[in-house]
Each structure stands twice: as C-alpha cells, then as structure tokens.
Fold:
Amino acid sequence: MKEVAAAAGVSLGTVSNVLNRPSMVSTVTRERVERAMTQLGFVRNESARQLRAGTSRTLAYVMLDSANPFFQDVAAGIESAAEDVDLSLVVCNSGGRIEREAKHLDRLIQQRVQGILLTPVDPDAPHLAEAARSGTPLVLVDQPGVHCSVAVDDALGGRLAVEHLADRGHRRVAFAGGPDSIGQVRDRLRGARQAWAELGRAAEDLIELPTSALTVAAGRTVGERLAGLPARRRPTAAFCANDLLALGLLQHAVGTGVRVPDDLAIVGYDDIDFAAAAAVPLTSVRQPRQELGRTAARLVLDEATDPGHRHEQPTFAPVLVARASTAQPHR
Structure:
C-alpha cells in the first residue's frame, strides 16, 4: 500500500479509503490510485482485513451429500444470494457422516465465516446446539430447527406420493429409503404411513424397504429385493425417498425386463433435472431447491447484520409432478 501511495502521489490513508470507503475519494484521485495498483500488481490482503474486522466475507454451506444434484441446486441458490452482496461461498460435504459434519462446523466457526448453512445428518445432534451458541449465525436447510431454518413439508410430500399411487389403483406399495437417521426420510415415511392408513389400507401392504444410502446403487439393490419377493407379496408400485434411489430402481427394472409403469410404477422425491430426462420420465415430488438456498442465505445474512433479527422457520409445500413412470392406471 505504501508503494501504491508513492506511485499515485497520495497518502496512505487515501489508498485505504479507495479500498474500503471509495465514496470518500474523488473520481480523479480514485482512478489514479487504481492505475497504480494495476501497474504494480497490487493484490489486497483480504486475510488481514478479515482479521481486523473479526469476520470474513464468506458464507459456508455444509451439505449432506455432494453427489446428490438436489444439494448442488440448493448450493446454487445460496451462491446466487451471496453474490448479490459480494460474498463468497465455501461448500463442505458431510457425506452423511455426523462426525465429519461436526468437524466442518468447528473449523468454519474458527475461521469466523459470516454465517453457516447446514443440511444436518441429525437435527438433534448435540454439536448443532454448541455451534448455535458460538455466535456464528447458523441456519438449517431442508430441515426444521429451533433457530432459523428453511424446510419443505416432507410429511406432506410422502402423503402426496402415496395418494397418487393409490389413485392409480395400486393396493400394495413399497417405500424405499434410509438410513432412518436422516430426518427427511423419517418424515417422508411418516406421511406415507398416515396417508395409507387414512385410505383404509392394511399396514402390511405398505412394504418398507430400508436402505443404507440414498444413491443410485442403493436403488438397484431395492430392485433386486423387490424381484426376490414372492409374486403374491410383490408391490406393484414403489415410492422412493429421493430421485437417485428411484433412478437406480428404474435402471434395474429396465435392465431386467420389468415394465414401468405396467409392472411397477415408481415415484421419486426432489424432482432433480435427471428425473424428467430418465429413460422413462420419472414421477417425482418437487422441492423448490434453489429457493430453499436463497431463503436460507437471506436468513443467515439478516442474522449476521441485523441486531434486531428474529428467527424464522419458513416451510415450503412440495408439489407432485406426474410423468410416465406412473402414467397407466393399474388393473
């Protein structure tokens, strides 16, 4: 900065104002300082500025699964909102591992990020309460919480999926999803069970198939398990807790000659872009992915900058998008 000041023929304070309070400097002087910066290859020391300020110009998002396009879309919504206020976004991946999530939160708090957005493995985990007490604003994404959070009514989503399959004439339906440590999976199953019971259907005709992950590979395994059931107990439809599971199940069905939807109707959840582009376009429960991210970013920024901030917990309603994977009424 001293070299820039000397080259531009101004004081060190003027260079500081150009960097931090440009409106206080005349246009002619500011342009002279900026030319000197360019000629000298000056790069601002952002780490030093952040150290003085006690916080960074960075938001962080700890996502549940970086391989899932749903969370990538949420991150895109957060990044869009961050860019609007000239902040950067750091994305971390817990991979569904609670100990990894806790380490990410600890590091981000130490780095004094301006705010943390988190899709938690377990919303009741003790380290979440500890993080909230740290003073760093924390917003839960895709999961309700006691502080700021944005979520989708997943119980309603489960209900929509099962009611749609019942309307198509299916009387034996499988639910595939897990692990049950993931709150969204529990809520989607809860909604499915409630809808099934209210339809007057036997509990044993909603066949639960827990999975160890929400991946395409786990969906193929669901297909193998369904194929191994006795014909008289085999479901004619499946509701999968996310689209990756549903796409894996669809892949197994197509590869083994199971006709979708004639032999097996399939409903996914999230409505990622791949759902509509599948070999048999997939019926799915749509979540407002980018809107979740933008809303969460707005909340965390408000908490970081407004002393009068009040916690909000907006909940979005999902929408079922019917496509070819459930198109034919079951006879």
The two ends are 78 Å apart (CA to CA). The longest strand covers residues 58-63.
